[in-house]
């Protein structure tokens, strides 16, 4: 039994409860009690942590990333058509299974240091990624990327789909790791395989995550239909389908997403850095679409810091709509927590701080210079919080970060394991 006292609790529950000077008690992996300090009664044999000068909130949920791409971060960031001309070939050459394992481990640890407790990872060597994230003890959704062209671990889309089936069989009962189906995009898969993916999702009740309406060339591929209309025409859109990016939309697209209960993950850092555009979050929310947030891969937005993604979402939406009042701090916090939990189907477990929910907690240090003063707790979290303010991170009741440091890992040791491939990549790319 652990009890954390003298902290401000931002629950993000349905009542938007905030307890200014409170305690939160966990037993094993669950929150069992919380309230104001004047109601706290110590229990024999419990471990008490004095969290004075902190704010506790639900652990962040990064609803879309590609952890394995850590080694390619900051390469050719300003190159036109970087994905097809540079990154795909580099993946083929340098992303071995061991490199993906090491990079995924590094990415998971970086994410914990940023306050993220749930990751949604879509990449290759998916079983190895599951093993790594299981070892770390982070909550995660993991999907094998399915592409019709030759991949770094499978030669055909059919083989990748078979790996997905094996992943579902092996990991679906795991307490922290949840398999998902991860078709790459609308233009990188055959219609036949997309239909098989939908059938598999229905048969196994498994989430499908896919890049949709992201690229300019994608928007021309299905004319006169949009990519969203195309996916709807083959019955892909439903409450298990999670569309990522969804930058280029019209009114009909928004209505189709709403009518089919399709969810959306917005990755503003990646989209704006690439000059692709800004998601119409305002219209999506007005139509009742659940919108969560992702950092995208570390090569796209160059960060796994979901709080900066949340802040950028606010800036982009307010600017794009010329409306300072659009998306309150509370709404932005929910996009990074309970909304993302909802679209992943785990909002009964995490995403808010409530009795009987899993103990996925982020304690924020308020003693550092950027956190002064605090007039509005939620606005402070959205607009002032930086990764250095992460004090303690708990996943499923286990303390993973304490006093700003990883409890179980040495990040520098992981860096050393990745350095040899970084040197090869640097040598290869210096003249490109």
List keywords for this structure.
432 residues; Urease, subunit C, domain 1; 2 domains; eight-stranded mixed sheet; 37% helix; globular; Amidohydrolase-related domain-containing protein; Metal-dep_hydrolase_composite; hydrolase activity, acting on carbon-nitrogen (but not peptide) bonds; hydrolase
Number of domains: 2
The Cα radius of gyration reads 21 Å
User: Kindly state the mean pLDDT as a whole number?
Assistant: 96
CATH class assignment of the largest domain: Alpha Beta
Per CATH, the architecture of the largest domain is Alpha-Beta Barrel
CATH topology of the largest domain: TIM Barrel
Strand fraction equals: 15-25%
Blueprint of the fold:
Elements: E1 2-10, E2 18-27, E3 30-36, E4 47-58, E5 60-65, H1 82-94, H2 97-113, E6 116-123, H3 126-136, E7 139-146, H4 157-171, E8 177-183, H5 191-204, E9 208-212, H6 216-220, H7 227-233, E10 241-245, H8 251-259, E11 263-266, H9 268-273, H10 281-286, E12 291-293, H11 306-321, H12 329-335, H13 338-344, E13 361-365, H14 377-383, E14 390-395, E15 398-402, E16 405-406, H15 411-429
Parallel strand pairs: 1-4, 5-6, 6-7, 7-8, 9-10, 10-11, 11-12
Antiparallel strand pairs: 1-2, 2-3, 4-13, 13-14, 14-15, 15-16
InterPro entries: Amidohydro-rel, Metal-dep_hydrolase_composite, Metal_Hydrolase, MTA/SAH_deaminase
Domain Amidohydrolase-related: 55-398
Protein name: Amidohydrolase-related domain-containing protein
